[in-house]
Design brief:
Blueprint: H1 18-26, H2 45-72, H3 76-102, H4 112-123, H5 133-155, H6 159-182, H7 191-198, H8 205-209, H9 228-233, H10 236-248, H11 266-274, H12 276-279
Helix pairs in contact: 2-5, 2-6, 3-6, 5-6
Bound molecules: zinc ion (2 copies).
InterPro entries: Chloroplast_FAD_CarF (IPR052864), Lipid_desat (IPR019547)
Family: Belongs to the fatty acid desaturase CarF family.
GO cellular component, one term: membrane
């Protein structure tokens, strides 16, 4: 008789260090030739097109909501709906980020390229700061275009619903920009962005850094990060991983022993910090 043995952090707490993981990875991975002008980091016209359509998709309901509110002198509900949209966007990015970090692969329909991109991000986190704007946001812009336009139509002239849809989807689309800012050094960021991070309105560098450290199973939310503490303290994702494992027999990647998919190439990161110009052509 076989015995099912889940490999979950609910059941054990592996003592893994980032340095040890980096050393393990260094023996099994090849340092990529990433350049700031290379095709994988640059924005293309299709990227810009999908970012433009995504922006139009979330800005249109916001503009419509403002117009309706001004003509009806009733702004309280749309404002509350916008706050709710902002808060739930953070929660949504947490669940989505957890799902694509842990399940599926490059061949998964619809989201395979995003799964591959996030796996690459765990190995070389700093590269997100070198991605051009549209290159970083185009996948979410395209998803938004196809999923939110029908919601805009359903909302009709309901100002609160339009406000919620616009703000929530806009925060989700720009979560990858907030994520990139969380990987940047403060001196490279506009003062307003640093102020928003320090105020807790955008995901902070310190908060997101925990996501890239062992045990690699927390801090998934990347809009404001307001849900990270409660989700991690309640072990929401670890419970979900157990449910998926016992129902479907699928292990999340976060249960795996240290491997190149989850570890950071420290050599490359150190090169980036010491000499960003040299690292462009490594
Ligand atoms: Zn991740
Ligand atoms: Zn990251």
């Amino acid at each position: 008789m076989s015995v099912i043995t889940p490999h979950c952090h609910l059941l054990r707490s592996p003592k893994r260090t980032r340095h040890a993981l980096g050393a393990a990875a260094a023996t099994t991975t090849t340092i990529p030739k990433l350049t700031s002008t290379g095709p994988s980091l640059r924005s293309t016209w299709p990227h810009r097109f999908w970012v433009a359509t995504g922006c139009a998709t979330f800005l249109t309901p916001i503009a419509k909501s403002i117009t309706i509110s001004l003509t009806s002198n009733s702004a309280l509900e749309p404002i509350l709906a916008a706050v709710l949209g902002y808060a739930l966007a953070d929660l949504a990015t947490g669940f989505y980020h957890w799902a694509i970090d842990n399940y599926g692969g490059p061949s998964t329909p619809l989201v395979g390229s995003q799964i591959q991109a996030f796996q690459g991000h765990h190995k070389w986190p700093w590269t997100i700061t070198r991605r051009e704007f549209a290159n970083n946001l185009h996948a979410l812009g395209r998803s938004l275009t196809f999923t939110v336009i029908p919601l805009d139509l359903v909302a009709g002239d309901n100002a609160a619903a339009l406000s919620f849809i616009g703000v929530c989807s806009g925060c989700i689309m720009f979560s990858q920009q907030f994520h990139a800012w969380a990987h940047s050094t403060k001196r490279r960021l506009p003062p307003a962005v640093v102020a928003l991070q320090d105020a807790g309105l955008l995901v902070s560098r310190a908060g997101h850094a925990k996501h890239h450290r062992a045990p690699f199973n927390n801090n998934y939310c990347i809009v404001s990060g307001m849900w990270n503490e409660v989700l991690d303290e309640m072990k929401v994702f670890e419970v979900l991983e157990m449910v998926v494992f016992f129902k479907l027999g699928v292990r999340p990647r976060s249960w795996s022993e240290p491997s190149s998919e989850w570890t950071e190439e420290e050599v490359e990161v150190e090169a980036e910090i010491k000499d960003p110009v040299v690292s462009k052509v490594v």
